[in-house]
Design a protein that fits this description.
Length: 117
Amino acid sequence: MILLLASALAGVPDGVRGFAAPADVTAAFEEAKRPAPVCTELLAGHAALCFKVWEGGRRRWVVPADLEAWHTDVAALRLAVLERGRGRAKGAIERLHVAGGPADARSAYLQIRDGDG
């Protein structure tokens, strides 16, 4: 497992993030004759797990050519995003209480400090 994780992390840029998208997200790209984003099923028939990457201060879709350039596949990309997300989340989540509310869980919310889910 450690070897697989090291291999998955090796070529994938740190700026790659996963996010939920409509299950048919790739159809719009195909109609526009643009490279479809890299996605995998998240919730059958309802949602896909897709990926975007920060590049030059902008976020763009990860496309199949990126996987080739990074020498990886969708399964390894998903694993890399999951593992890096765990690391970022460890110190980045804080509980904030709603001003004036009772000091219990119902009057609090969680916030990610870095702002990049």
